[in-house]
Amino acid sequence: MKRILMIAVALLPLMLMAQARIGIVNSQNIFELMPEKAAAEAQLKAMSEKYHAEYELLRGEFDKKYADYQTVAADASMPETIKERRVQELQESDKKMREFERRAADDLTARRTALTQPITDKIQAAIRAAGEQGGFDLVFDTAVTPVAYTGPNTVDITPMVKSILGL
Q: Which residues are CB-contacts of 19 (< 8 A; sequence separation ≥ 6)?
């Protein structure tokens, strides 16, 4: 009797797993189809172009200072104090460009997150809704977690999610 009970207890998790409904979804595929994505990309592109234009202005200033420095450095009669000041100006200009690049990249990253997070949240809500509607116990996102194998009982709920989102 104990042996039968032990076997039943050992097989219980396997029986429960056999009843689990598992779905997969590709959220990246859905994200690419979202109409909000195009608007977000347009905003990011416009912002990036403004940063690029400003960087080009800084680069132009640096190039002008560098050309001035080369002229001063080639003049043997120019006092060392003036040459040193021109070197300092170049270093400050270079530092200003690097700082601008860093801050621009940080701003673009923050803006990208602010624009894409609502889209991602909307997709996640649709995935949860599809999972609940389909009675799934687990849903794996193949865009985030690669799945090496899916059996014949695994259901791709990507079409369900697209339908919920009206895509």
A: none
Q: Which domain holds residue 63?
A: 18-165
DSSP conformational letter for 147: -
Question: What's the total number of domains in the chain?
Answer: 1
Let me know if residue 11 belongs to a domain: no
CB distance 83 to 132 below 8 Å: no
Q: State yes or no: pLDDT of 2 exceeds 80.
A: no
Q: What are the C-alpha distances in Å from 79 to residues 72, 132, 166?
A: 9, 79, 73
Q: Indicate the pTM of the whole model.
A: 0.71
Is residue 134 within 8 Å of 160, Cβ to Cβ?
yes
- Closest among 21, 57, 62 to 156, alpha carbons compared: 21
